[in-house]
Amino acid sequence: MVISANYFLKYLWWSAFYSGSSGLGSRSQQVQNAAVRSTSYLRILIVLQLIAFVVVWSAMRLGRNNSSRPLWQALRLLASLIFTLIGTGLLALLWAWIQPGAR
Length: 103
Prior knowledge:
single chain, 3 helices, elongated
């Protein structure tokens, strides 16, 4: 999740640069590079989030109860997704606070 948080911040920075550079023209080499980097960081972020989700899901063991197994697995998947997204968001917030100049 830490690596995902880092790539999330990189994606945000390059997306903001690309969005703020609309006055430079779409043919500017810097604008094209920012668009490529932004897209690359988004793809890497999605892959890392999926990996983090699988790790959290596999590590999560919920106690047995009397509810049906598919419902129990759905709750486990939902909890894993929530923990992954909130954990990455909090780590990105912490990383941005600690390293304000990092990209």
